[in-house]
Amino acid sequence: MEKMEKQATMEGKEIIGIDLHPDSFSAVALCGPTLSCRQLYLDAAVPTKDYPKWLQRRVSSNCIVVFEASSNAFEFAGKAKEVGAKAVILDSRKVGQFRKAYCENDKLAARKIAKCYISGMAEDSEVWQPDERTKTRREIISAHQQAVKDATRGKNRLRSYLNEHGVRLPKGFRMVAPSALNKIYAMYQWSDIQRNLLGIKMDKMLHAENLRSELLAIITNEVKSDKAMASLLSLCGIRAITAFAVVAAVGDINRFASPKKLASYIGLIPCLHQSGNREFRWGMTKYGIRQLKSILIQAAQSIYRSKNRSGDKLKQWGIKMSFRKGKNIAVAAMARKLAVAIWYQLKGYMPAIIEKPQVIRTKLRHIIAEMSPTFFASAGYKSKNDFFEEFCLIMDLHT
Fold this sequence. Notes:
Elements: H1 2-10, E1 14-20, E2 24-31, E3 38-47, H2 51-58, E4 63-68, H3 73-82, E5 86-90, H4 92-95, H5 106-119, H6 132-164, H7 180-185, H8 192-225, H9 227-231, H10 240-250, H11 259-266, E6 270-275, E7 278-284, H12 290-305, H13 312-325, H14 327-346, H15 357-369, H16 373-378, H17 384-394
Parallel strand pairs: 1-4, 4-5
Antiparallel strand pairs: 1-2, 2-3, 6-7
Helix pairs in contact: 6-8, 6-10, 8-10, 10-12, 11-14, 12-14, 13-14, 15-17
């Protein structure tokens, strides 16, 4: 029935499949709701800078423009909507299953994308297109994770260089402290060139650390300004980065009819193969939002390893499961329970792993301590404490 309705909506429409690349794109227009429809035109290797002009010339409100998911698909889909067309983005993994081994080029790829949509075989693989605010949030969390990688890489390179010269940093040594470089100079008889190299390595690492701190301040302020996002901090194991990453990846929680749908979207479900009376389940699926999946796995690991009573109920459940199925499976199951709790919290219900107000206040103080000190003055706060008290007021954390 749904397929017939979809074919009715495509009746008389132009289905335009577009194969995107950073510098060029190819487009094929088909007419009709069936796979035997005729080709209207083919535009190959059109420069991406000419895309707006091409839209004005080729696309109207009678068109359905179909893209394969890629880094620039959302931007191009948004421009297609501006001229009145319907824009659809298909999951690249589903589209990739339709392939002609004997020949593969941009022209065939564009035609394949259009026919994949017409056939309905990729019906469940349409990608949700985020609004501008969600896209900005995704850019921020991506920049933060890149800054974390750069800072970690910088510290490891500096340690590796010191190890080459037999220098071992003492336990608890803070590489971001203002006096760190002078202390390293005093540990060995460095030449002038070596001192310059150490200074360059230290500057790169500090630059990444400062960027990470500034992005954390932006993220924390965004969490504070969104009450639904701030409410996620009341869950055990969820801090500002996790709460922000969840909302950036998920967008509108009403897209998911149940917590199981959200867990499946993230990729926190086991692989399943069923044939006849046999059913096999094994490791976690490789589909889903890898970035968010890894963040929730890290949150579950922090609960599992914690020595305090924060998240004690979930922790004890995970420990019991680890005795039966091993630590890795237990941590993944705890991450799935966190995803379920997130769904309930964003929907306005009360999950079972809510922290006590005092624990949440302590969590906020730890988050604020890692923020860039320059943020508070630029944002109009006299001190960190003013920001903290305003955050507590938003979350109804009364002393």
